[in-house]
């Protein structure tokens, strides 16, 4: 599994001559790292007398960030598997009309899945972005830049994942699916840009 590789091994694989792991897996990794940073800042806030009033909130953030970190880490492999599914569908036999029909259907289903996976990554990464906002605004001020880096990584995770959504939509024939997914992606993209801008206004150095 990609998520179990050493950092150096994963980077080497990203730079290799195969299509996986690619941008989608890297987007998921960015989201997982962002969740880790949100979790870290919250942990550095818990137990400090100065921040006693926000301790329950920070404890809740630690828990949710850990769950998101686990989910996004799993998405590193989930995204690569989705892309591999598309490639496998294209490799299906197409000698007879029946085989061509089955192949075309399989390609379309695989493309839908390959769009749905990064959309889920983007949604989870956006939630991480919201958590970074909380730790930047109310967490330990000595770690505010860590929260800010988490916000920027979460932003990158959302936008990178949405790029993968969009490129897959271009080959999907189901117009209703395309419109629904494209609308969701556009809304998320706009919210992400606004959210990051708002978060960074609270980082005073």
Note down, in words, how this protein is organized:
The protein has one domain: Up-down Bundle (Four Helix Bundle (Hemerythrin (Met), subunit A)), CATH 1.20.120. Helices cover 79% and strands 0% of the residues. The protein is built from six helices and no strands. The chain has helices at residues 7-14, 23-45, 55-90, 97-138, 144-169, 175-200. It is elongated.
Radius of gyration: 19 Å
How many separate domains make up the residues?
A: 1
Instruction: Write down the CATH topology.
Output: Four Helix Bundle (Hemerythrin (Met), subunit A)
Helix content: over 70%
CATH architecture: Up-down Bundle
Query: Which CATH class applies here?
Result: Mainly Alpha
Structure, briefly:
The chain is mostly helical. The protein has helices at residues 7-14, 23-45, 55-90, 97-138, 144-169, 175-200. The radius of gyration is 19 Å and the shape is elongated.
Helix and strand arrangement:
Elements: H1 7-14, H2 23-45, H3 55-90, H4 97-138, H5 144-169, H6 175-200
Helix pairs in contact: 2-3, 2-4, 2-5, 3-4, 4-5, 4-6, 5-6
């Amino acid at each position: 599994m990609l998520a179990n590789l050493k950092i150096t091994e994963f980077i080497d694989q990203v730079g290799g001559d195969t299509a996986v792991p690619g941008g989608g897996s890297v987007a998921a990794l960015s989201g997982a790292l962002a969740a880790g940073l949100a979790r870290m800042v919250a942990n550095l806030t818990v137990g400090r007398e100065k921040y006693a009033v926000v301790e329950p909130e920070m404890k809740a953030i630690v828990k949710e960030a850990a769950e998101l970190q686990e989910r996004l880490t799993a998405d590193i492999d989930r995204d690569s598997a989705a892309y591999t599914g598309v490639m496998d569908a294209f490799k299906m036999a197409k000698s007879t009309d029946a085989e061509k029909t089955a192949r075309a259907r399989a390609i379309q289903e695989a493309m839908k899945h390959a769009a749905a996976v990064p959309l889920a990554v983007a949604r989870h990464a956006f939630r991480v972005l919201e958590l970074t906002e909380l730790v930047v605004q109310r967490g330990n001020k000595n770690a505010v830049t860590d929260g800010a880096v988490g916000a920027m990584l979460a932003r990158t995770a959302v936008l990178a994942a949405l790029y993968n959504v969009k490129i897959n939509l271009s080959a999907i024939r189901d117009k209703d699916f395309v419109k629904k997914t494209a609308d969701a992606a556009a809304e998320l993209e706009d919210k992400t840009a606004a959210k990051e801008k708002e978060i960074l206004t609270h980082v005073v150095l």
